[in-house]
Amino acid sequence: MKTILSILAAFLFISSSFSQDYFNQKENQHKDHLLIVHPSLSNMSRYDFLIKNGIIDPKGMSIVGLYFEDEADNYQSVIDSFPDYGFYAIPSGLEPTKIYSKNSLSDEFYKVFKYSSGIIFNGGPDIPPSTYGEEMMTLSSVPDPWRHYYELSLLFHLVGGSQDPEFKAFLKEDPDYLILGICLGLQTMNVASGGSLIQDIPLEIYGKNTVEEILAMPENSRHRNYYTNYSLHPQIHSYFPHQIKILPDNHLNSINEKSQFLPYVLSSHHQSIEELGSGYKATAYSMDGKVIEGIQHLEFPNVIGIQFHPEIEYLYQEGAFIKLKPEEETFSLYQKIKELDSYNFHSQLWAVIMNLL
Q1: Using CA atoms, how far apart are residues 253 and 62, in angstroms rounded to an integer?
Q2: Which residues form the domain of 105?
Q3: Which among 31, 274, 304, 261 has a CA at the least distance from the CA of 137?
């Protein structure tokens, strides 16, 4: 019995090691991969749901979770939970002072670029303000700076930035490579190219510093659900639906079936773009024009950032119920988005993104 258990344990260890060493295996060294950065359990569960329910079609590409050894997260349980997906760990060794230049991980970054056709950067907490030359406000929170150092450096290597104009971006070799940044992902794209961030939207844009003041604002000026600041109800979500304005001549506008279509999207953020990074243009704004809701690269048009969350599974699940206020009844976000004539925007957004692969 002990021998069987020992063999099983060894097999699991070897399988886990291979999962984390995915791109070092010769059979996986090809372009037919879509990378998911920060493959947490919630992120991988969402993409697994979207793929299995036909909302995302990765065009036959294999999904690979990409993470960094110095991140605070432990991905072993995620690897065990998704045996059908690959995982690759970028090793330790990045120096925070060498994010925006050739560094000890440049070869690793090039490897994952060489063996993939696209990459998705996901949501998360605030970026260290020091990475865009600012001091840290008390409203900023950076629980895992190493995640940001790696993601910023990877994006700088992929797209380049004003920090080192002579650096040759990897996408010069493959201008059609897909990069999608969601929420934090958009902010990381902007900072990696030399842009900056507003550290707190209510305070810096609207001059509001209490929850009550923010809740009294128009709903289209709220970018997350501030009822979560003091409510312990488990069904109250930090995500908040509001409308956006889409500008002409970009991938988001290609979804726009109606003149002046103002879709409702789902947001959960308190930071946003201040100064646009080198090479980007804005593609969408909040209804009051004060928050950039989308960006697209001028030289590499398949590099797209959105400040909202189309990957949240509740948008596509009729039987999933949430609430936004303590006193209201639970409701189906799927039905609500349909009633607001914005469901097709989300499903077609994924179709546009996947077609870029």
Answers
A1: 28
A2: 14-355
A3: 274
Q: What's this model's pTM, rounded to 2 decimal places?
A: 0.94
Question: Which pLDDT score is estimated for 241?
Answer: 96
E strand or H helix at 294: strand 292-297
Domain annotation covers residue 9: no
What average pLDDT does the segment 269-288 reach? 98
What percentage of the chain has pLDDT greater than the value 90? Answer: 89
**Count of domains observed in the chain:** 1
Q: Confirm if 177 and 260 have CB atoms less than 8 A apart.
A: no
Three-state secondary-structure class, residue 26: helix
The domain spanning residue 66 has which CATH number? 3.40.50.880
Task: Say if 2 falls within a structural domain.
Answer: no
Q: Is the pLDDT reported for residue 152 higher than 70?
A: yes
| Cβ atoms of 271 and 200 closer than 8 Å | yes
Domain assignment present for 1? no
Q: With 50 as the cut, is the pLDDT of residue 144 above it?
A: yes
234 found inside a domain: yes
- CA 58 vs CA 64, 95, 101, 122, 130: distances in Å: 12, 34, 31, 17, 36
The residue whose two tokens read 């090809």 is: 30
Q: Work out the average pLDDT over 25-38.
A: 95
* Three-state secondary-structure class, residue 280: strand
The answer to whether the CB of 241 falls within 8 A of the CB of 323 is: no
> What average pLDDT score do residues 278-300 get?
98
